[in-house]
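How a chain folds remains the central question behind the approach discussed here. No coordinates are needed to read the tokens, only the vocabulary itself. For completeness, the protein is quoted in full, as a sequence line and a line of structure tokens:
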Amino acid sequence: MGNSNSRNSDTKSITHHTDNQNTNNDHHLTPMTSSNVKTTMSRSASGAEISEKYLTQFVPVEKLAEKLQEKSQKFHVNGIVGDIFVSQVFPRYSDLGHRLFKQLHHNSRAQTEYLGTVAFRQQCERFLGIMDDVKILEWYIRMYAEIDRPDFINKQGVTRLLLTCYTVAMDHSGNAVLCPAINRTFDSVVKSIFFTDQDSLSIGFVCRWFETNLIRSVLLVHKYCLHTLSTAYRGLEQNEQSSGIELSTPVLEQRTPFPEQSDSDLNTLMPLSQAWLLAGALPPLYSKPQAVVSQSANKSASAAQIFKDKLSMLPSHWTLLYDSNEHGLGSNRFLHHLMGYRGPTLILLNTKDGQTYCIGSPNEWKETHLYTGGEGSVVIQLLPKFAILEKKPNILYLNTCVRGYPKGLRAGADPKKPILAVDEHFENIDCKGISAVLISIEIWGCGDKSSREVQLDIKKWQIKEAERQRTVKLTAADWMDHPDRYLLELGGRQNYNN
């Protein structure tokens, strides 16, 4: 009873203190805490919840708010102006910064154009505290929703969201931002989402689509925003702008292995934008770190470096194993460059009518009459629409030598009706009963460098073994019964020396 009376008296004193304060001035709020303070929807004009009389204990946000408030004083306001927030915190991504500030302003329901300091702290703290991936996804899709209809998003909004995700990933991976095929890549996603004639769809529907297909790309942007809001105050204390962190997307073995191409060129190597799209749709094992850092190296690394490594997705280097335009299209050429690679692989199949499919295998390929493939096996359509056709284990099939079983390359859970089926001559491809002419195949290795080195060593050993077998020395007795001797005699050579 004593504890209950003390808590009631604390609540009364806080309520009395609330009524006597000027709720329109955020900087007059005094820091107080109580586990039983009831929050209400009453807010100040600048967006702060007046029932919350305590300041946030998240020091980075508190320092950031102080610095932004100082720089906003030239506008003669007691708060934070959106332009100041964008120019100081997100100078490289003004569109992302404006949309984030607008969402914070909307959630605070401020009646002023600026955002009060306390309201800014409250909203940033709640934004940084979102832990559920689905809620994070909904937050960013709402940022790009229509102005007059906040519960709907149109094609332009989805395209801008994709462009933001792509730009942030490319800027922090060391690759060039511009890609000649970027419009074609974005159009495939938009066509997949807006499969009807409708120009706009509900936020919930688009969220479910991204959750199923491309949630990792959006979460990477959120990771960047979290780090920026948590560390931007350091640069402002030194009168510098925020610089962000090094995020990454799959870095291919060569810096720029893609030739210049137009949207109509479908018979070329996988463009950079398509590699980014696959990285967001595929399981993380296809873009896992190159190597695990030793414990001794971790001990010597700085705390900031360890924190940055945990934030980033350090991917493996993708390397081109096979290009039919260069190595020739056929089953022998395909098997020669595929077999022996002991890492995840991506097989891209391009058809004459502009379709592109991708088969992802998390394990080494083997010729067998059985369906194989571990967790992470996936079949994806890239063009003309982007869609994950199937993702489950034991859906991959490769057979060119076992008699009595279908030959060729297949993918799908149903052996009688596979999703993709390439004939044994690698000339035609069948997708759900629709046949098309196969014009090119690419194989990309997604493992570390050791996987590629092991494959090359195996090929070198095979060549040496073949050469050794070609130069086998025969004795005179062996030669008398050798089949080649009879073939030479049939050709007209009857006499032999030595």
Summary: The first helix runs from residue 2 to 19.
